[in-house]
Amino acid sequence: MTDVATDQPPQDVGSQRSIGDAIRSMEIDTRLLGMLAALLVIWVGFQIWSGGTFLSQRNLWNLTVQTSAVAIMATGMVLVIVSRNIDLSVGSMLAVVGMWMALLQAEILPDIIGFDSPWTWIITLAAGLIFGALIGAFQGAIIAYVGVPSFIVTLGGLLVWRGVAWAMASGRTIAPMDNIFGRFGGGGGLDGTIGGGWSWIVGIIASAGIVFLLINGRRRRVRYGFKLRPKWADYVIGVIGVGTILGAVYYLNGYFLPERLAIREAEARGIAWPAEGLNISLGFANPVLLAIVVALVMTFIATRLSFGRYIFAIGGNPEAAELAGIKTKMTTVKTFALMGVLVAIAAAVQIARLDAAVSGLGQLTELYVIAAAVIGGTSLAGGIGTIPGAVLGALVMQSLQSGMVLVGVDAPLQDIAVGVVLVLAVALDTFYRRRSAS
Q: What are phi and psi of 93, to 5 degrees?
């Protein structure tokens, strides 16, 4: 037996006889391991298929940037689905909010505060967040107080907001974006990244965070008399986590600024151009860092705040949650409003990356966002889901799509592959729930 009052390893650690026993001792979600295995298969498969191009530093850097917007929205979709709802309108919402922010900075604000004002990006982003929250709250209010199913409300939103986005600009492409606002997209050389040095700092802070969480978690278990994980399990988790983070920083820092942009950067800094060239690491792109911050905040909301616990309680048993005094209707409105805020953040990333808002912005994005959440372990039956799983699901989906584009798979076949993966994810979720219930 494991001593729950002292920090001692269990007596039978040495008798672990299988990988399954080791995984259970480490308390790792098997579905999370399954996603990691699937991601590894996808990466290795496309690396071979592409002749060694897929896992290049340049392609992985681009992959992380492309994943950011979907990952940001997937964190919100987790809470929506956990509450036994669905939001089919996120792609169209992204289009209308993105078009609104583009019009503000390209056509409306210049007439009021002038071009290149330092306030342009602040006003634009604030207006986008408010607009997204209002759209989400509006749809949530219809669902909660009128009683229309979320599937119908957001299906209507998918059509309505797409039409509104087109009408706002009459199908025009709105460009260009404000220079400072454009940094949200990760383009423009070093302006869109934090650089190699800061990437190392972020990696070291993240590594220290993993060590702190492991130590603090163990102390809390001792304090409250909970069963302890074997010490070797904490060591393994810590080594793998820290090694993965620092390894990713080291590898991605090997992607250097293209020579043309490096020359421009050297001239701006007054650096003489050496004969062997100048290697300037791009480091993490701004949208990637933004997605990480959003994921951390959303994890805190879902696991530490009463609002997050209310959502999981509603998803587990709505009737019991209401009898327990939870304001289920208002919680639903807040959940969809939060989804709208996250869509606005993703819209800022998308239009900044494109340096424009186009009429087709966000098409089929709802498919990838829902698929990312479901693949990440969020149950469509409600009550079950994790933010890190959704982020990993977004990376799986984007890896699949980017890999198929890289090797030249036709667009119809790409849609077929995504559809098959989504159905398989739901089938696995159903199988997992049945096995857990038996």
A: -60, -40
Amino acid residing at 374:
V
Residues in the chain: 438
| pLDDT at residue 310 in the model | 96
Q: What is the Cβ-side half-sphere exposure of residue 372, based on CA atoms within 13 angstroms?
A: 33
Alpha carbons 40 and 244: distance in angstroms, whole number: 14
Distance separating the N- and C-terminal Cα atoms of the chain: 26
Percent of the chain having pLDDT more than 70?
90
- Please check the confidence at residue 431 and state whether its pLDDT lies above 80: no
Pick 274 or 420 by higher pLDDT.
420
In a domain, 245, yes or no: no
d(CA 129, CA 337): 10
Give the count of domains, the chain.
1
pTM: 0.90
Region 340-361 average pLDDT: 94
Residue 423 domain-assigned (yes or no): yes
Specify the DSSP class assigned to residue 144: I
Residue 142 lies in a domain: yes
Dist. CA 144–CA 333, nearest whole Å: 7
Confidence of residue 19 (pLDDT cuts 50, 70, 90): low
Task: Return the half-sphere exposure (C-beta side, CA atoms, 13 A cut-off) of residue 287.
Answer: 32
3-state helix, strand, coil in the chain (%, to 5): 75, 0, 25
Enumerate the β-bridge partners of residue 285.
193
Phi, psi of 193 (to 5 degrees): -135, 170
**pLDDT the model gives residue 377:** 86
Q: What is the dihedral of CA 302, 213, 230, 23, to 10 degrees?
A: 50
**228 φ/ψ sector (left φ>0, alpha ψ -120 to 50, else beta):** beta
Q: Is residue 391 in some structural domain?
A: yes
Contact between 333 and 314 under an 8 Å Cβ cutoff? The reply is no
Torsion over CA: 146, 149, 152, 154 (sign): positive
What gap in Å lies between CA 232 and CA 207, rounded to an integer?
Answer: 18
User: Is it the case that residue 10 has pLDDT exceeding 70?
Assistant: no
Residue 436 pLDDT: 65
Neighbouring C-beta atoms of residue 14, cutoff 10 Å: 7
**pLDDT given at position 26:** 66
327 is in which domain, residue-wise?
29-193+285-437
Mean per-residue pLDDT over the chain, rounded = 88
